[in-house]
Amino acid sequence: MSEPESSPLLTVAILTYNGEDYLERILMQLGEQELDGEVEVLVIDSGSTDATLEILAKFPNVRLHKIPNSEFGHGRTRNLAAQLGTGEFIAYLTHDAIPIGTTWAREMLAPFKVSPRVVAVMGKQIPRPTCFPVIKYEIQGMFSGFGPDFGTALFYQDAFIQDEGVLGAVSFYSDVNSAARRSFILDVIPYRDVPYAEDQMFGKDLVLAGYIKAYAPRGSVEHSNDLTLEEYGKRIFDETVGLRRIGTNIPVLTVKNQLRLTARGIVGDSLRILRDRDYSWKRKLYWLANNPRYQILKWKSYRKSTLVDIDDDSQISAGSLEHARKNRG
Known about the structure:
By secondary structure, the protein is of the alpha/beta class.
């Protein structure tokens, strides 16, 4: 498809691979955005075998770029989207992150007006009503720590950052729902071509280089991974190994600490479930009985990921959810 005659304000890039479940809702929401500027929607598909391409055919204004699955890389393909896009800004959505409301795009772009040093924005994620409690409470806890919903938070390097832990908290970044100055990715700091945690590296790279990352809580999406119990364990493995592979210092989890964290997680989640107004009493009883299985697997998988040799590709592939999904696809 040829590029529009006038450059849009925003390119929204969606990376798809068998994304039929939520893609139509995402595209419909993007078509309703209230923004003082044009929105271009770019989809990069890496070999979907489900109804993804059929859904895209219903939206003729969406630009589609296909790549072989073998060419996909979390950082590499996002850099490709920046090259293909034509907007001043580029927003990234995963194929299961649904913008909430008609002002999502406006809220994601608002922090860039604060300062030219603001080069990247992370939006809020709100868990789906159907997700299991351990993920629900992890997502809610994570994003509540970045600031209140009525304001915009800015994160940057200063003398307060004295150790890797604080730096990790300040530079935390998720490109499930994010936006950046497109020229910044093209000309200054691109995503790194790594197997996993490319967004964490991008956030750290830009903060260490003296730029500002913003958190826009009103630029929110509905998102939580649709996982089975087994898949959840593999996801924990992938995330932790990915962080280790980019140099994050994650010590080996001892059996004693595994048991302690499991017990603490079960007790904490159980108290949250009892107070959770989203659940009926029947649902509360169901999750009180079943959620402990997720906490047990979470910390079992986490311990496994701290023990695996990060240079042993065969061991990592055996425990990886991404590897299993690619083989199924």
